[in-house]
């Protein structure tokens, strides 16, 4: 079966908005046309992707899976088209992936000052599969947090980052100045293998709704700061290691120069 990329784009819009009307407005098509296209996609795949009610749209298990796959697929196609255009126009480009909360701007500025002829772009690395942009060709190098699948990658340690416990502001532990792991023993933790969310926004919305506490890197908690959440240091929690990662079989000079510049810049930071 040949998947229609247009239908996939339509589906992603509905999955992100959880609403046919708003998705149709974003896509500049009518709602009936969008509904027919999604229905046709479900018939082609022979499975239900969305559960529709009068007020909302929810993803089924198959819909959640397709949403993750479609985002990667569409991003890969867009990257391939961009590389074709770059080749046609003689553009040299370096793309850097970054995990949520990690800042690579200083390294890019330092590299650009030495290589003004190279255009640099950034793409987010999905928190549940950080190595994906390196494997699907979207990025040349990633500024990531361990753990991820390191097979076929060259990984350079950069630093360490503490983890904090993120919880609702009204939680009984929220008034404490810091916690230990023992304080969390009887708490419900949002464990990714048991309940994987499709975005960090969804994860923090679940925390704020009282679904549990999550241990997250400090920079992630700071990046998603909101008044109904607090994050507390966990004094004996294992720190998270940050690193640069590239495909092990990539050895071109531009990439090597960026890795050297970024390693020195990010370690100083």
Automatic annotation (TrEMBL):
Keywords from the UniProt entry: DNA-binding, Transcription, Transcription regulation
Stored CDD domains: PBP2_LTTR_aromatics_like
Entry keyword S-adenosyl-L-methionine: no
Superkingdom, taxonomy of origin: Bacteria
TM annotation in the entry: none
InterPro entries: LysR_HTH_N (IPR000847), LysR_subst-bd (IPR005119), WH-like_DNA-bd_sf (IPR036388), WH_DNA-bd_sf (IPR036390)
Ranges of residues in domain HTH lysR-type: 3-60
Xref: Gene3D superfamilies: Periplasmic binding protein-like II, Winged helix-like DNA-binding domain superfamily/Winged helix DNA-binding domain
Pfam families assigned to the protein according to its UniProt record, in alphabetical order: HTH_1, LysR_substrate
PANTHER family tied to this protein: HCA OPERON TRANSCRIPTIONAL ACTIVATOR HCAR, TRANSCRIPTIONAL DUAL REGULATOR HCAR-RELATED
Family: Belongs to the LysR transcriptional regulatory family.
The protein, known as: LysR family transcriptional regulator
Species per Swiss-Prot/TrEMBL record: Streptomyces cinnabarinus
């Amino acid at each position: 079966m040949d998947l229609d990329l247009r239908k996939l784009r339509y589906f992603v819009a509905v999955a992100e908005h959880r609403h046919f009307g708003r998705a149709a407005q974003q896509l500049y098509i009518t709602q009936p046309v969008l509904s027919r296209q999604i229905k046709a996609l479900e018939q082609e795949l022979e499975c239900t992707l969305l559960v529709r009610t009068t007020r909302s749209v929810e993803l089924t298990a198959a819909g959640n899976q397709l949403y993750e796959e479609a985002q990667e697929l569409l991003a890969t196609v867009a990257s391939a088209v961009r590389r074709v255009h770059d080749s046609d126009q003689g553009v040299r480009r370096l793309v850097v992936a970054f995990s949520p909360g990690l800042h690579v701007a200083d390294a890019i500025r330092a590299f650009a000052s030495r290589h003004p002829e190279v255009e640099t772009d950034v793409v987010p690395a999905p928190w549940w599969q950080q190595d994906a942009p390196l494997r699907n060709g979207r990025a040349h190098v990633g500024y990531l947090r361990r753990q991820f699948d390191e097979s076929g990658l060259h990984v350079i340690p950069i630093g360490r980052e503490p983890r904090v416990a993120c919880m609702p502001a009204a939680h009984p532990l929220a008034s404490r100045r810091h916690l230990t792991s023992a304080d969390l023993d009887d708490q419900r933790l949002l464990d990714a293998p048991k309940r994987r969310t499709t975005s960090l926004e969804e994860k923090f919305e679940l925390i704020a709704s009282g679904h549990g506490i999550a241990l997250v890197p400090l920079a992630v908690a700071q990046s998603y700061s909101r008044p109904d959440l607090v994050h507390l240091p966990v004094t004996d929690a294992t720190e998270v290691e940050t690193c640069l990662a590239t495909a092990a079989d990539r050895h071109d000079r531009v990439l090597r120069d960026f890795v050297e510049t970024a390693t020195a810049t990010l370690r100083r930071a």
